[in-house]
Amino acid sequence: MNRTVLPFLRESLALALIGLFFYLFLFIDFHEIEWNIPSQLLTVNTMFLSILLEAIPFILLGVFVSALIQTFVSEDFIKRVLPKNAILALLPAALLGAIFPICECAIVPIVRRLMKKGMPLHVGVVFLVGAPILNPVVFASTFYAFSSQLHIAYARMGLAFVLSIIIGFIMYLIFKNRNQLKWTKEELTTTVQLKSEEKVGKLKSTLFHASDEFFEMGKFLIIGAFIASLFQTFLDRTLLTELGSSEFLSPAIMMGFGYILSLCSEADAFVAATFGGTFTTGSLLAFLVYGPMIDLKNTIMLFAFFKAKFVAAFIAVVTVVVYVSIIIYQAIFL
C-alpha cells in the first residue's frame, strides 16, 4: 500500500508547491508588502543564491557526463585503459584531469560513477583533486586575473599536477583500493537496472540517470551552499587581513577561507586577486590550490556518497599536503 501511496503523495506535494509558486509569482505584488528582515539574513540569501546559481550549471554538466559514463562506458573498458600497475596509473589520471573543463561542483558524481565502473580508488582521488584545477578554463581565468603576476597561474597548475599525484599515492597507501563508496540497495541489484536500460534505449537511459543523479546531488549542494553562505556572512574578515602577512599562518588562513567560501574553480582566481595587497603570494596559491580540491559544499557531497572514514582521511591528507607544499614553495621560490 505504501509503495503506491507515497509516490502519489510526493507528486501531489510537488505539484502543489509548483502551483503555489506560480500563484505568488502572478498575483502577489511583493513590493507592496513591508518586510522587516534583518540585513544579515538578506546577505545570507544573496550569498546562498550566488553560490547555488554558480554551481548548478556545473552540477548539470557533471551529472550528464556521469550518466553518459553509466550508459556507454563498461567495466571492461575501464580495466583495459588503466595501467595494471597502481603507481603508473597515477600519471594518466592527472593528465586526464587537464582535458575536461569540470569544477569541484561537478567532479564528485563523475568520480563516483567511474569508481562504480571499476576505477581504482586512488586513481579516482587523483581525478577528484586534479580535474577542478588542471583544465584550460581554470588556467585561462587565473592567467587573466593575475595578468601582472603570471607566475601564480603557472605555479597553480604545476602544484595541482604534482600534488594530485602525491595525494593519490598517499590515499593508495592508506586504503589499498578498498571500496569506500556507499551503495544503495538498487545499485547492488543491477539486474533490474540492466533490463530497464534495454527497454528504454541508451538515450532515454542517459536522461533518466542524469535526472536521478541531479536530484540526488542537488539536495546536498543546497545544504552545502546554505552553510557556506552562513559562514561568508558572519565570518569576521578583518581578523583575516590582520594575520595576512605571516608566512606560516597566512597560508592556513587562506586555505580555511577557500574552504568556507566554496567558490567554483573557474571564478576563484578573481576573488584571490582582490587579496593580492594583503596576503602573501604563497597564501594566495594556498587559496587557489586548496579550495578547488576540497571545500564546504563538496565535503557534504563526499560524506553523502563515500564512507565517513575515507572522507575524513581525504580531507586530512589534502590539508597537510597542500600546506606543507606551500611552505616548501615559499622557501624555495619566494
TrEMBL record:
The chain crosses the membrane at residues 12-30, 42-69, 89-111, 123-146, 152-175, 214-235, 269-290, 310-332. It is a multi-pass membrane protein. InterPro entries: DUF318 (IPR005524), UPF0718 (IPR052923). Belongs to the UPF0718 family. It comes from Metabacillus halosaccharovorans. The keyword Chaperone does not apply. This is Permease. It is found in: Cell membrane. The lineage of its organism: Bacteria, Bacillati, Bacillota, Bacilli, Bacillales. Keywords: Cell membrane, Membrane, Transmembrane, Transmembrane helix.
